Amino acid sequence: MKRTITLNLPFGAKEVMNPKVEISYIMRNTETYYWEFDGNLVAEQTFDGRYAYLHYFEFWISKATTVTFRSHAPDLHLCYPIEIGEQPLIMHDELLDIKLTLNQNRASYLYLAVADFHLELPIGHYIVRGITLDAGLFRPNIARSFEFVMPLVEAKRTGNSISMQSVDFLIGTLTKYELDAIFQNLNPKVLDNEHILIRHQIYLIKLSRLKIMMGDGSINTPLTIIKHVREILRLIIDQYGNKALIGDLAESVQVDRSRLYKLHKEYYHCSLSTYRNELLVERILREYDHFHNNLSGLAYELNFAGLSELNRFFKKMKGQSLAQYQKH
Fold first, then answer.
1. CATH 2.60.120.10 region(s) of the chain?
2. What mean pLDDT is reported for the chain?
């Protein structure tokens, strides 16, 4: 994918080979560049995929300054400000007087038109992760489910001259875990790297929809809350298999774990853990045809420690091993 956003540093900035501090999150198989100016330090990592462009910026600011981001072409981005302090950062297109707000641990979709954006950086430490998305993922037939981002998608398709921002949403444990997974799984030397990037993009987009629903007031009764929790749980089982944890769910929906257990038992007459395990069994059986000659590969795909753990889990749920079950 063509890179459409670049960081323009102040005059006099110099590249640093041996910085005093290291970046907080390493993007695998990429170069890290550091620059120094006026006692400030900036780090940048990028990754060019066919269907996504990954950005990472980290700032250590000891003297308040302003940097400029240039958007070279109209494009759609997912922006994750994971450490910016209590006060929001403002991206300001001074020519059209458009301001985009970056809040700590609140992600948003950005449509950036061709423009220069000034970013004022007070003294502090800042980390912003971003993904330039393939807007073609948002097909017309899914517009209703993703109406919060469709105006930005349309702006990208028409090359609108006005930059836009979606409603923001929480960057919780599930999102941070996924961002780390993207960074750790990047490998341009393997054939399925682009498939991995697409899979991560789709997961983050679906997760953003569920988070926005949680914040827009539509999930406001005990029944809608627990239905929403079940939908998120199905999503993370599909993405992470056995690594899907109920504790992460509670944090994501900002509801006490014991209340989630109680609500699920009340409305669905089984524990949330039982439902989680049933979803995992469904996933195992869906994947089985692809791995029936390589059950160790299936265990790896679904994040079990090994085939023995997979078999123990399956036998506990179904009363027999996976191989025995498939003979019937």
1. 5-170
2. 92
Instruction: Pick the closest to residue 40 from 55, 18, 20 (CA basis).
Output: 20
| Topology of domain 5-170, CATH | Jelly Rolls (2.60.120)
For residues 58 and 35, give the distance between their C-alpha atoms in angstroms, rounded to a whole number: 11
Q: Residue length, the chain?
A: 328
- What count of other Cβ atoms lies within 10 Å of the Cβ of residue 87? 10
Which residue has 């994947």 as its token pair?
A: 287
Strands (E), the chain: 5-8, 14-16, 32-37, 40-48, 53-61, 65-71, 75-83, 89-93, 98-102, 106-112, 115-121, 124-132, 164-165, 169-170
CB atoms within 10 A of CB 213: 18
173 vs 13: CA distance, rounded Å = 35
What are the DSSP calls for 14-58, one per residue? EEESS-SS--SS--TTS-EEEEEETTEEEEEEEEE-SS-EEEEEE
d(CA 68, CA 84): 17
pLDDT for residue 241: 95
The helix/strand count (H/E) of the chain reads as 10, 14
Structure tokens at 268: 């669905």
Q: What's the CA gap between 79 and 117, in Å, rounded?
A: 14
Alpha-helix runs per DSSP H in 186-256: 193-215, 222-240, 246-253
Cα distance between residue 302 and residue 235, in whole Å: 13
Give me the residue label for tokens 């944890």.
Answer: 245
For range 20-25, the mean pLDDT: 94
Instruction: Report the distance separating Cα 211 and Cα 116, nearest Å.
Output: 30
Q: Summarize pLDDT for 213-272 with one digit per residue, the tens.
A: 888 777 889 999 999 999 999 999 999 999 998 888 887 788 888 999 999 999 999 999
**How confident is the model over 149-169, as pLDDT tens digits?**
999 999 999 999 999 999 999
Claim: this prediction has a pTM higher than 0.90: yes
Using the predicted structure, report yes or no on whether residue 3 has a pLDDT greater than 70: yes
State the pLDDT at residue 328.
60
